[in-house]
Write a structure and sequence with these properties.
45% of the residues lie in helices and 22% in strands. It contains ten helices and 13 strands. β1 and β2 form a beta hairpin.
Length: 320
Amino acid sequence: MREVKYLSPSSISLWDQNREEFYWRYLAEDKPARLLQTPPMAVGSSFDAYVKSELTRKLFGTTDVAGVDHSFDALFTAQVEEHIRDEARVQGAAVMELYRSSGALADLVLELQTAIEDPRFEFSVEGRIPHEKVIGGIPLLGRPDIFFRTKDVSIVDDWKVNGWYAKKPPSPAKGYLKCRNLKNGIFTYKTHKDVCPMMIKGQMIDTYFKMEDINPSWATQETIYAWVLGVEVEADYITGIDQIVGRSRVSSIRNRVSSEYQHQLLDRIADIWNRITLGHIFDGTREESDARIQMLDNYAEGYRRDQSEHKDWLEGVFRS
């Protein structure tokens, strides 16, 4: 099996959802071909490039920060695959316009102005998180959208674009402090019925829901980001999600992740890392796990052929 150098929120999520896919993507000696970026994936990446370049320019007066190019073109080219750039450029701009006109962008800028040091965008960070069952700590990798510190607290924020191409978009995740809804060219605003807004450490957050109550995957992602950025396990930090839902709603969630969830998550990640290190990937006995790995290796050629055929089909769709 190939060596895994670190775990990330996406790899941990895949371990939980589809262990066979995790094996093929991260451990199999002959790695399957990567599938092409789809329109829903690309529109999120395009919006990401638009919003980060604009925020950088607003806050620093330039898109060149510490020698790193945060211009739209640089971010867009790095994040959006060539076959879908024309579509993604247009749709990403439409998402950005919704985000700006809703007032969510201005609200975020006000939050960022409370930072005592330069906010960080578009970066990767690695760290080893101590755990009693892992010698040397668990190696983790994170790519936070936004990280900043105020005089009282660390804050990790992220953007989500959901249902942009859906005929019937999902509802916004519960627990939002503000949901901006566009109807007939006018935005209306409301707060989720169950939230309890309160000013905590200079930031307005919801004290009723924890992030794991709203979306455990988001809580895992934000917690890992906080840890690799130096926030201690169980420390009190604030997490935020700005969610663009369909083509008419932008909601903002600001809350915390409980210390109980953080400890449970750390124990779970330690177990994953130890099992990968030992090669005991699947549930059951070691012999049963090894037998399943052998079966997957035997079927790997067919799996890769299916992936390749799907890739060829998708390329044909975009060429037509």
